[in-house]
Every structure is written in C-alpha cells, then in structure tokens.
Amino acid sequence: MPWKGASRLIVANVTATNQNDLFAQVNDCLTADNMVEPTFLSAVTAREMRFPTGLDFGYVSIAIPHVDPEHVISPGVLVCRNSTSTTFRAMDGPERGLDVQLSIWPLVTDPSNQVDMLGAVITLIQDESSYPVLLHGDQTEVVDRISCALAPTED
C-alpha cells in the first residue's frame, strides 16, 4: 500500500507574492481547519531552508513543502494554487531557484507514510495532464485526481 491516511483534501487559492507570504497563508488555512500545530509555520520555514522542496519536471516546476508529523494534527493533503509564481529552491540543486505556482503539501501524522506520500505526489505530477487539473480544475476534478494518485494499491 503506497500511502494511507489522507483523510482530508483542501484546495487553497492564495495570492502570495513571496515564499514567506505563501507559507503564512497556508498556515492560516490549516490552522483555521485545526489541521496543524502552532509550530507548523516555523517548522515548514526551517525545513524548507535546510531541505528545499522545489522540483523541476521540465514542463513545470512545483514544490512539495512538508514537515515532520509532530507538527500535524490531522492527516491530509493541501493543494495550494497561487495566483502568481513564487521562488522555491530546487531540491536537486539548492543554488537554483524555480518559479512555482502550484505546491502540494502532504500532511502526515504517521512517519511511515511520509516517503510513500511524497513518491505518490511526484508520480502524480510526472503525468503532464495532472498539472492543469490541479492548478485550474474545479474542486471535484482536483479531488478525483488526488484521490486516484493516493489510493492504496494491492500488493
């Protein structure tokens, strides 16, 4: 089973102009839904500095910001669609900045789910048809695409 435990899917449309603003808006959204601990914002900011999450897929760049499970109250996934691009440092070359308009935030409470969840998100974005759905699709289309990508598979 690749990943289990995403009980909630949130689609957030934000208007951040930089990464700090993006993180603050995501934190506000998740805090309002009681999904994260008060430590979430500082944890995601510190982790992004140490371990950048920008990924360049050639046709598009996205980011997968995440934190350790102790900062998450309720498991889920947040699909964050920003009205403008913000810069994330590349995971495979932190000296390189990537323009990112879509970020996907795995929220895990079980540490054993984190690696599989990240892999499932990366596999989802490798399918070029997923990006426009996640960035511009309606709630139902986004839920369907994420649900299919994260659904447990038979071993």
Structure, described:
There is one protein chain. With 155 residues, the chain is of the alpha/beta class. It is built from 5 helices and 5 strands, in the order βααββββααα. The protein has helices at 19-32, 40-50, 114-126, 130-136, 139-150; strands spanning 8-14, 54-56, 61-63, 76-90, 93-107. The chain has a 5-stranded mixed beta sheet with strand order 1-4-5-3-2, with helices on both faces. A hairpin with a 4-residue loop joins strand 2 (54-56) and strand 3. Helix 3 packs across helix 5 (139-150) and helix 4 packs across helix 5 (139-150). It starts with 7 loop residues before the first strand and ends in a 5-residue tail after the last helix. Residues 1-5 have low confidence and may be disordered.
Structural class: alpha/beta
Identify the overall geometry: globular
If you compute it from the alpha carbons, what radius of gyration comes out, rounded to the nearest whole angstrom? 14 Å
Average per-residue pLDDT, rounded, comes to 90
Query: What is the overall number of helices?
Result: 5
Order of helices and strands: EHHEEEEHHH
Strand order of the largest sheet: 1-4-5-3-2
What is the percentage of strand-forming residues? 25-35%
Question: Largest sheet at a glance?
Answer: 5 strands, mixed
Report the count of strand segments: 5
From the N-terminal CA to the C-terminal CA, the straight-line distance is 6 Å
The stretches of 5 or more residues where confidence is low (pLDDT under 50) are: 1-5
As a percent range, the share of helical residues equals: 25-40%
